[in-house]
Write a structure and sequence with these properties.
Strand 6, helix 6 and strand 7 form a beta-alpha-beta unit. This protein has about 350 residues and is an alpha/beta fold. The protein folds into 2 domains: about 120 residues, Rossmann fold (3-Layer(aba) Sandwich), CATH 3.40.50; about 170 residues, Dihydrodipicolinate Reductase, domain 2.
Length: about 350
């Protein structure tokens, strides 16, 4: 099998950089084109010297038609609203697409326009786009033309909740999600709130009402539960470069005394037994962000507080890894008939 020819549009942001880290050592993929409006004409290693001798490709301007001619797959890391203009051109030119924006994550238009406050240039593609969590949509990914790579918060919320919603072990009402993410989650920007002096030694909540990922989480959890549900979602920004942790509170579905923690643990372990990138913790071991740094793993644990009667579910991942770029490579593997762990299972950042 010839290598998958991959292009990246928006290659100089953190998502783009992480894509190149994953793809540059991928045995079945070849990076053929890198596009950046901001740095067109420069070499990629001029922007990220760490890639000198690894990825010295020139950066080109974003011309979707020309880029598509050189690629089997284009991965877009563009701002919300821009992707909905660019992606249709790529698809019309005959290439497959994985998109990192929020533009194609919703089944319906209204939640998108309400969450992002933007018009959508091609709402007709919403029904075709496949939501890119392989653990949930593997079969659809195999034939997908367009994949909507999930947000980092939704990945770290939906995967921990999925077995319990799917098997009716928790109530759909009253789910609370407290999430903490690294500074890199804000992207490669120079805005004051993300500067060193404003962020170091500082943990802060933000967008505590109507964070745009809330509706994305609710959409996927509603599908799993088989009915519409809402969650209380509160994100926090932590002085870390990369990493994400969710603590989720839920009420047991059964109140007749038949509930036990072993059933929750069993649901996690059975549902994820054959998933190479989901690691279920047990025996009181808790997910730590540092254990997933630089990887495509998500670590999950569950506990039950018998005094309050509340289930506590925990998830940890790398917001740039399983929360973004490396999950996109996992989806790419599924799309092109490769084992999903290809090029990913040994990828890590060390200590």
């Amino acid at each position: 099998m010839s290598k998958i020819k991959v292009g990246i549009i928006g290659a100089t942001g953190y998502v783009g950089s992480e894509l190149i880290r994953g793809l540059s050592t991928h045995p079945s993929a070849e990076i053929t084109v890198l596009a950046s409006r901001s740095f067109s004409g420069k070499k990629y290693s001029d922007i990220y010297p760490t890639y000198s001798g690894i990825c010295d490709l020139p950066l080109v301007d974003t011309d979707p038609e020309q880029i598509a001619k050189q690629c089997d797959l284009v991965i877009t890391a563009l701002p919300h609203g821009v992707s909905s203009v660019t992606v249709p051109v790529l698809l019309s030119a005959g290439t497959r697409v994985i998109d990192h924006s929020g533009d194609f994550r919703y089944r319906e238009l209204n939640p998108y326009t309400e969450s992002y406050g933007l018009p959508h240039s091609c709402p007709e593609l919403l029904a075709e786009a496949v939501y890119g969590i392989p653990e949930l949509y593997r079969e659809k990914l195999r034939s997908a033309r367009l994949v909507a790579n999930p947000g980092c918060y939704p990945t770290c919320s939906v995967l921990p909740l999925a077995p319990f919603l799917r098997h009716g072990l928790i109530r759909s009402e009253g789910i609370i999600i407290d999430a903490i993410t690294a500074i890199s989650g804000a992207g490669r920007k120079t805005e004051l709130p993300y500067s060193f002096c404003e962020s170091d030694e500082n943990l802060k909540p933000y967008s505590v009402v109507h964070h745009r990922h809330t509706t994305e989480i609710e959409q996927e959890c509603s599908i799993l539960a088989g009915k519409q549900l809402h969650v209380t979602f509160t994100p926090h920004l932590a002085p870390m470069k990369r990493g994400m942790l969710t603590t989720i509170y839920a009420v047991p579905a059964s109140s007749d005394g038949s509930f036990c923690i072993s059933r929750l643990q069993e649901a996690l372990e059975s549902d994820y037994a054959n998933e190479p990138f989901v690691r279920v913790r047990s025996g009181g071991a808790m997910p730590n962000t540092v254990h997933t740094t630089g990887t495509n793993f998500i670590d999950i644990a569950v506990e039950f507080d018998p005094i309050t009667g509340i289930i506590k579910i925990f998830g940890a991942l790398d917001n740039l890894g399983k929360g973004a770029s490396l999950q996109a490579i996992q989806a790419m593997n599924a799309m092109f008939g490769l084992p999903e762990e290809t090029g990913l299972i040994h990828l890590n950042a060390g200590l």
